[in-house]
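Section 3.1: Structural characterization of target chains.
Under the original work plan, the team committed to producing a structural model for every single-chain target entering the pipeline before any wet-lab resources were allocated. The record below documents one such target. The sequence was received from the expression subgroup and is listed exactly as submitted; it comprises 118 residues.
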Amino acid sequence: MLPRNKNLKQAARELRKNMTDAERKLWAHIRRKQIHDLQFYRQFVIGNYIVDFYAPKAKLVIEVDGGQHFSEEGKESDRSRDAYLGSLGLRVLRYNNHDVLTNIDGVIAHLTDEIAFS
């Protein structure tokens, strides 16, 4: 069972209510077991983090990154976060907002391949 900070439960609820356009678009393609019959959860608390999407059966986290992730501080934060999630046996896939919004078919194809070959 994954560690979960219960203090983040309300924040995760708020994030689910206020998803970005990119998150909403990706969610429309992965919800209801559309990819390899995997159940995904959105804005899921793992440890002290809220991940964008999580598929427990595949031990997979998907992050949809906006501009703040491309600064040096953002990159370092992401490295720490990914290392922590990796230490729990989870794999993290990252897609940027632009790719999700303009090339959703490519993102879904990549995601499908990554799941199939893992």
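The beta strands are 41-46, 49-55, 60-65, 91-96.
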